Prior knowledge:
Strand content: 15-25%
Number of helices: 4
Number of domains: 1
CATH topology: Glutaredoxin
Strand order of the largest sheet: 2-1-3-4-5-6-7
Structural class: alpha/beta
Order of helices and strands: HEHEHEEHEEE
CATH superfamily: Glutaredoxin
CATH class: Alpha Beta
Number of strands: 7
Amino acid sequence: xxxxxxxxxxxxxxxxxxxxxxxxxxxxxxxxxxxxxxxxxxxxxxxxxxxxxxxxxxxxxxxxxxxxxxxxxxxxxxxxxxxxxxxxxxxxxxxxxxxxxxxxxxxxxxxxxxxxxxxxxxxxxxxxxxxxxxxxxxxxxxxxxxxxxxxx
Length: 152
């Protein structure tokens, strides 16, 4: 006959295993290499890079004379333009996209060319301040078609 202690231990271990397999993928962070193209004088770009570094991304920055050329080369729709452009694991990332949204993009791997936070909204990573505003994170495809990916 199995003792109550052994039975409890088996039940506890089984439940722990089941719960950890259910929750682990949701908690798992995706570490990735990010290449950022920005103007050397842009302070908010540097703050966004710090935000990504704190979240575990490996960021390489390139100060370029014309970020617009990078945007054009990588197919960023003009209406989504911001102050910096990044490339991560085949995706184009335009503007002040939060690190957790970038993590989600890399986990879910949607069939899009990239995601963007158009403009420079107050409250987005790198644009912190006393007055945050609501903003959208927008996905776009190779033809320039856009869709709301998430709102903040």
